[in-house]
Amino acid sequence: MAKRIAVIGAGPSGLTAAKAALEVGLEPTIFEASTTGMGGLWKKSGGFVWNNMRTNLTKWSCSFSDHPWDEEADDFPFGSALLQYLLGYATRFGLEKRVAFGQRVARLERDGATWQVTTAGSIGAPQSFDGVIVAGGVVRQALHPGVTRTRPLQRHNGCIPASIATVRACTASASPWSAAGFRASTSPAISRRPAPR
């Protein structure tokens, strides 16, 4: 009997982990907290993309070796195109049927040789797995070290204010900063070190 593997998250990491598990004869179940679909941060609803967001990597840099982009795809695809790429990957390798949507993992507990997985709001005994792959993504929870704030930070939703300052001009912050630069009256980037030229 094939070993059962719990994969937490149906974003790019979770989908590729589940596919790799299938390739070596394991039986993955993908737990996805969202009810709105696969794709992780690339989902339109519940993700972290906005309408005109493009990737900061070329399609050749953000592709899977066994699932090439269409020839017509933009060199720097829009977030919506990347989501379609991920959904195509899931369809190609039969991953959709392995996703348990609306199942946020609330607890993982080691029990001898197995892992007990309990989802939020579940009734009854936890599910038992031979292994667990945590693929919740690097941006699952925003990290703001040393920042004290009186109200929660809001993620960018496509509404560009009259002015915007991007703190720490790194690759991840460059995308909203450049989008704001086309619409905002001012859009300075604030960094400890000068930006490379």
Characterization of this structure:
- The structure is a single chain.
- The chain starts with a strand and ends in a 7-residue tail after the last strand.
- With 197 residues, the chain is of the alpha/beta class.
- The chain folds into two domains: 4-134, 3-Layer(bba) Sandwich (FAD/NAD(P)-binding domain); 155-197, no CATH class.
- 20% of the residues lie in helices and 19% in strands.
- Strands 3-2-1-7 form a four-stranded parallel β-sheet, covered by helices on one side. A three-stranded antiparallel β-sheet has the order 4-5-6, with no helix packed on it. Strands 8-9 form a two-stranded parallel sheet.
- β8 (166-167), α3 (171-183) and β9 (189-190) form a beta-alpha-beta unit.
In short:
Helix content is 20%, strand content 19%. With 197 residues, it is α/β, with parallel strands linked by helices.
Which CATH class of the largest domain?
A: Alpha Beta
Query: Overall 3D geometry?
Result: globular
Strand order, sheet with most strands: 3-2-1-7
Radius of gyration: 19 Å
Helix content: 10-25%
Biggest sheet architecture = 4 strands, parallel
Instruction: Please identify, by name, the CATH architecture of the largest domain.
Output: 3-Layer(bba) Sandwich
Number of helices: 3
Q: Note poorly predicted spans.
A: 149-177, 179-192
**Would you list the SSEs in sequence order as H and E?**
EHEHEEEEEEHE
Which range does the strand content fall in?
15-25%
